[in-house]
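Practice problem 4.
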């Protein structure tokens, strides 16, 4: 993509956002790539390199919650590449750009697939974490969430202070139902949405990957920001091909000018 065409796509994206009634962002692991967190798929992705994890994580947790917690306590001593990267990560200009669009009143909500808490650290407020947040714990009974804390072997599995059921990490496991409230908010936001920024996602995991299709079916417009093509690329009204940390700040600049 030539510099001129990137500029044209950035302008197109800014026009769509400045004129949007209810703009959303759907964020994926690529948005946090420039914060040092590896993606899952695509070039250099964790699963591209090491293969996919078991798809029955939740079934295994439910069968032996204490065993699952004990394994986590042991892993604390030998954190994985992903855990080390996500613990050290800070928001990058892409996160800050989305927060700026919210402050401008342009971006109404972020649906994020990321569990890294970087949107909140960047200042975004209207965020739904469809796959949870790694800094929180969640009760599998009543859904109550609380900040993650150091636990000893005697304390696991932790029990909910309200309903007494078992508490797990808020991060949604493979095979685990997405918490109902998060799902309802995402569906409602997608129904209202007329312009959606789809940033840093391969568009392979549902229900998240279904929201851009829902916006298209309702006659809305997609703005894609990605370093590679995805299933959404052919349908996007603007395709910003490159790192989101570089391109999103350019979009914010043009939106500010359009609103001035
Ligand atoms: N800027 C923009 N996009 C990027 C960048 C970057 N700097 N670097 C990589 N990408 C893109 C890749 O091209 C790819 O399309 O980010 C996307 C990352 O795709 P995935 O690794 O599949 O991440 P994601 O789409 O968020 O995965 C969805 O799958 O395993 C589950 O729970 C996990 O939330 C995750 C979900």
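Answer key:
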């Amino acid at each position: 993509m030539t510099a001129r065409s990137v500029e044209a796509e950035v302008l197109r994206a800014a026009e769509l956002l400045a004129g949007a009634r209810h703009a959303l962002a759907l964020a994926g692991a690529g948005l946090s790539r420039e914060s040092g967190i590896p993606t899952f798929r695509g070039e250099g992705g964790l699963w591209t390199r090491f293969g996919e994890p078991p798809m029955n994580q939740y079934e295994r947790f439910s069968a032996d919650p204490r065993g699952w917690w004990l394994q986590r306590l042991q892993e604390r001593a030998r954190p994985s590449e992903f855990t080390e990267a996500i613990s050290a990560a800070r928001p990058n200009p892409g996160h800050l750009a989305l927060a700026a669009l919210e402050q401008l009143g342009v971006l109404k909500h972020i649906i994020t697939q990321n569990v890294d808490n970087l949107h909140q650290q960047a200042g975004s407020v209207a965020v739904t974490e469809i796959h949870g947040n790694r800094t929180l714990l969640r009760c599998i009974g009543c859904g109550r969430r609380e900040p993650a804390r150091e636990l000893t072997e005697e304390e696991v599995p932790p029990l909910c202070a309200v309903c007494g059921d078992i508490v797990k990490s808020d991060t949604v496991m493979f095979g685990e139902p997405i918490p109902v409230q998060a799902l309802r908010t995402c569906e409602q936001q997608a129904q209202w949405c007329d312009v959606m920024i789809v940033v840093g996602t391969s568009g392979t995991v549902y229900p998240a990957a279904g929201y851009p299709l829902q916006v298209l079916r309702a006659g809305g417009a997609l703005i894609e920001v990605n370093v590679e093509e995805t299933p959404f690329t052919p349908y996007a009204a603007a395709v910003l091909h490159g790192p989101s940390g570089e391109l999103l700040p350019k979009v914010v600049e043009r939106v500010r000018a359009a609103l001035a």
